[in-house]
Design goal:
This protein is an alpha/beta fold. The chain contains twelve helices and nine strands. It has one domain (2-200): 2-enoyl-CoA Hydratase, Chain A, domain 1 (Alpha-Beta Complex).
């Protein structure tokens, strides 16, 4: 499951335990509840907050709970549909977000990391890996849209999605997927929190921050169910802040 703690202006969402942090219905519901709590608390506190997502053990997340799904495509489809609102919650969250990739992030776990604004990854262990091409599963449209939005180098996108390339932190940084590489898990978590504190200290308006993020990734946000404001609504919102 997960826990949520507040450290000053930074909210730390931790996937707990030494397992693979498979994204099943229980964990997905727990993450969504934590993100809803973050958004509510930040709205009460006013501008200046950030989120860090980190995991215990050797996995950040090993993707959807395919053990529960088994051979059932219907069950797998349930999990794919259940994860979509998590992506929407993160892309619409009114604050900067940082993923501390302290272990393997595969398939849906890789997607979860990509939904954050920044990624800090450990160098000594762990890979980013999209396994679908290797295991013979098509990618859901919102997965593809998010990868196209966040993995902007064409060769990197090809290697991740069409070759199933397993990326260690230095390679992922070269491709622009990871922002900071740290020696191990403790340093990765500490650097993610340091970066989040730096971003929170800017005291940006959360609604404005989220609106700009949604405008940056219109296709991905549309695919996960976020409806972008019309140009007229944006103009009215802009005028109201002058």
């Amino acid at each position: 499951m997960c826990t949520l703690e507040q450290r000053g202006r930074v909210f730390v969402l931790t996937l707990t335990g030494d397992g693979e942090h498979r994204l099943g219905h229980a964990l997905i519901a727990s993450i969504r509840a934590a993100l809803a709590s973050v958004a509510a608390q930040a709205a009460q506190a006013g501008p200046g907050a950030a989120l860090v997502t980190v995991a215990e053990g050797r996995f950040f997340s090993n993707g959807l709970d395919i053990g529960w799904a088994g051979a059932s495509r219907a069950r797998l489809g349930e999990l794919v549909a259940a994860l979509r609102p998590v992506a929407a919650d993160l892309l619409a969250l009114p604050m900067p977000t940082v993923a501390a990739v302290t272990g393997h992030a595969s398939a849906g776990g890789f997607l979860l990391a990509l939904c954050h604004d920044y990624r800090v990854m450990r160098a000594d262990r762990g890979v980013l890996y999209m396994s679908e091409v290797d295991i013979g599963l098509p990618l859901p449209p919102y997965f593809v849209a998010l990868f196209r939005a966040k993995v902007t180098a064409a060769h990197a996108l090809r290697d991740v999605l069409l070759r199933g390339r397993k990326l260690r932190a230095p390679e992922a940084k070269e491709m622009g997927i990871v922002d900071v590489v740290c020696p191990g898990a403790p340093e990765t978590a500490a650097e993610a929190i340091r970066l989040a504190e730096e971003l929170a200290a800017r005291k940006w308006d959360g609604a404005v921050y989220a609106s700009i993020r949604v405008s940056m990734y219109p296709d991905a946000c549309s695919k996960v169910g976020i409806v972008e404001e019309s140009d007229e609504d944006k103009a009215r919102s802009f005028a109201s802040k002058l």
